[in-house]
Amino acid sequence: MLGVVIVSYRSDDLTVRFVREELAKITVPHRVVVVANGYDAVQAQQLANRIPEAVILPAENRGFAAGNNLGVKWLEEHDRPTYILLANNDIRFRSERVVETLVETAVAHPEAGAVGPEIIGPDGNRQGPEPYMSLWDRYVWMYLSTPFLGAEKKRKRFALDYPSRAEAGSHYKLSGAFLLVDAEAFREAGRFDERTFLYGEENILSDRLAAIGRTLYFDPSVTVLHDHGQTIGRHHGDRERALMQFDSMACYYRNYRGNSALSLAAARCLYSLILKVK
Fold first, then answer.
1. Using an 8 Å Cβ cutoff, are 63 and 192 in contact?
2. CA–CA separation, 70 and 75 (whole Å)
3. Would you say the C-alpha torsion 207, 57, 89, 8 has a positive or negative sign?
4. Does the pLDDT at position 235 exceed 70?
5. Residue 47 backbone class (left: φ over 0; alpha: ψ -120 to 50; beta: rest)
6. pLDDT of residue 238
7. pLDDT on residue 232
8. What pLDDT does residue 150 have?
9. Per-residue pLDDT band at 146 (split at 50, 70, 90)
10. Measured between alpha carbons, how far is residue 161 from residues 106, 155, 203 in Å?
């Protein structure tokens, strides 16, 4: 049995399209759960009327991590699926048998706690996989070094072409926009860390899976398209979204990588100034 969890926030049309047009292509037995973040009972029922094939769970909007965890827990209580697909509603399948292939890959690689496909953004570029990057490299030096490094040195120093070069196999980080997780490994790892609201969940999951001896496996034999930011972009500007990402990532760097509160405050200050002049 396969479970599918979608976290929806004020994006009913996207959710309905994704369930009716994309998830309908899945040929293996599955159950779809939509966590309706910030919906009241009436709004949740309206969504349920449009996609009766899905279970709708109205929830307080506590973010991406908490929403996914809620959907996963519901599936564990009712269906006990072997694998769970965590999917954004702004995804389109580009390959045939996308989900079926990911399940087959997971079975073939039992060391993997999660498996992800090639994910292509609106610009035509891959959204991951990614290597580990320190706090200061990610938010400060990558920008401040621009006047001192040529394009080629900067590309190598910060592995900017890592996603385009990534081959099938284990990688530090995969995108959480479309990720198949082993339900048992996800539960053992502690699921997502609900201290994050949006962003940073994949980094934390990577470390949590590594702690139980599991990896994240990239399978580029199947591809999905991801119109990244289609929902959040309607509610937050670029700078606000960037700082929101930093604040979620701060939870990761503080609690999983040992950065001090002082270093996080300094990095945020510098990053905020960088965003103003970018």
1. no
2. 9
3. negative
4. no
5. alpha
6. 81
7. 53
8. 82
9. confident
10. 26, 7, 19
Q: What sign does the dihedral 240-71-58-195 (CA atoms) show?
A: negative
Residue type, 203: N
Return phi, psi of residue 68, to 5°.
Answer: -65, -40
Measured between alpha carbons, how far is residue 166 from residues 119, 127, 201, 231 in Å? 12, 11, 21, 28
Q: Are 189 and 113 in contact (CB under 8 A)?
A: yes
Rounded distance between C-alpha atoms, residue 64 and residue 9, angstroms: 9
User: At residue 278, does pLDDT exceed 70?
Assistant: no
Mean pLDDT computed over 161-170: 97
Query: Exposure pattern of 101-125 as b/e (b: 16+ CB <10 Å)?
Result: bbbebbeebeebbbbbbbbbbeeee
98/115 Cα distance (integer angstroms): 11
Half-sphere exposure of 98 (CA within 13 A, CB side): 23
pLDDT band of 234, cuts 50, 70, 90? low
Helix (H) or strand (E) holding 4: strand 2-8
- Which residues lie below 8 Å from residue 263, measured CB to CB, with a gap of 6+? 135, 136
What 3 state SS string does 8-75 have? ECCCHHHHHHHHHHHHHHCCCCEEEEEEEECCCHHHHHHHHHHCCCEEEEEECCCCHHHHHHHHHHHH
Distances (CA, A) of 98 to 85, 111, 130, 174, 274: 11, 20, 21, 16, 39
Q: Which residue has the tokens 């994050």?
A: 196
Do the bridges between strand 112-120 and strand 30-37 make them parallel or antiparallel, or are there none, so unpaired? unpaired
